[in-house]
Amino acid sequence: MAIAIEARGLVKEFDGFRAVDGVDLNIPEGSIFGILGPNGAGKTTMLRTLLGIIDPDAGTRTLLGSSKPISQSRIVGYLPEERGLYQSMRAVDTIAFMGALRGMALKDARDKGRAMLEEAGLGYAADRQIKQLSKGMAQTVQLIGTIVHDPKLIVLDEPFSGLDALNQAKLERMIRAQAEKGVTVIFSTHVIAHAERLCESIAIIAKGKISFDGLVSAARDRLRPQVHLETESLDGPWRSALPADCIAEGNWWHFTLPETGVEPLLTALVEGKAGVRSLSIERPGLHDAFVAIAGESVAAEMDQPLAEELL
Fold this sequence. Notes:
Keywords: ATP-binding, Nodulation, Nucleotide-binding, Transport. The chain has helices at 43-51, 91-101, 106-119, 135-147, 165-180, 192-198, 216-220, 263-271, 286-294, 296-310; strands at residues 3-14, 17-28, 32-36, 58-63, 76-79, 153-157, 184-189, 201-206, 209-215, 226-231, 247-249, 252-256, 276-282. With 311 residues, the protein is of the alpha/beta class. The strands form three sheets. It has a six-stranded mixed β-sheet, with helices on both faces. Strand 8 and strand 9 form a beta hairpin. The radius of gyration is 24 Å and the shape is elongated.
C-alpha cells in the first residue's frame, strides 16, 4: 500500500516542552485517516510539522514522496483549526483567492468556486460577504477554498468544531466525496464519533505520543465482543458453562465472548434446558477501544468537549 505521509522519531519542542514526542506514523494514500486526542494532545503541532509548516527538532517525515513537505503545498489542501477569512470579501472571491494561492488562475478558481457552492447548496450565497454568512456557511466556504485546486492530500484540523449536527453531516458528506475520488483525507478531532463514522485508519495521540496507529477495526479488535443472553431458566447445569466474568441481571446474563466462541456455550444452554429467549453479540465500539488504548483519564478529557458541543 502506498504511503501518503510517513514519520519516524518526530520531535517538536517549545521552550523545553515536547509537544510532539518521538512520533512514528504511517498514513495510507487514498484513505480517510483520523488523528484522535484531547485538546492539548499535540494534534495541531504534529500536523503542522508533517506538512512542513514548522520544522521538527528531530526525526524525519515524508509527504507524498518528498522529504521537503512544504514543496508539495500546491497539491495539498490545509484547513487550520484557527479559521481566518476576510469578513468583507464575497464568498466566491474568498474561494478564488484561496485557489490562486495554490496556483490556479483567478478566473478559473472563481468559476469553479461558484460551481462548487451550487453543488453544496450555497449558490445563492456566492456573492454575499463572509460577515453575512452563518458559521456553518462560512466554514463550508473555507472548506471549498481548501479543495478547489483538486489537491491530492487534504488536511483538516478540528473541522467539526462548533458546527451543529446538520452542518457536521454536510461536512462528512464532503469528506467522503473527496475520498471516493482517491484523495487522501486527514482530520484531527477530539470527538470519537466522527472518527468512527468516517475513518478507515486512525492514530491516537496524548501528551505528544502516539499510542496506536492503524485500522479502526484493529483498534476495536483489541477488545473481545460482549454477549447479552436472556434465558427462561435462572439455574441449572448450564450455569457452569457461563464465563467467570458473567454479570447477572434477572434473566439476563452479560459477559465477554469466550475465546472458544459462542457455539460450545449454546450447546450447553440447549442441553441444559436453559430456554434461550434472546442472544446478541455486541462488538466493542471505537470509544471502548480508545479507553483501552489511551486510558480512562484521556477518554474523560475527550468526552468533556463533546458534551459542551451538544449543549
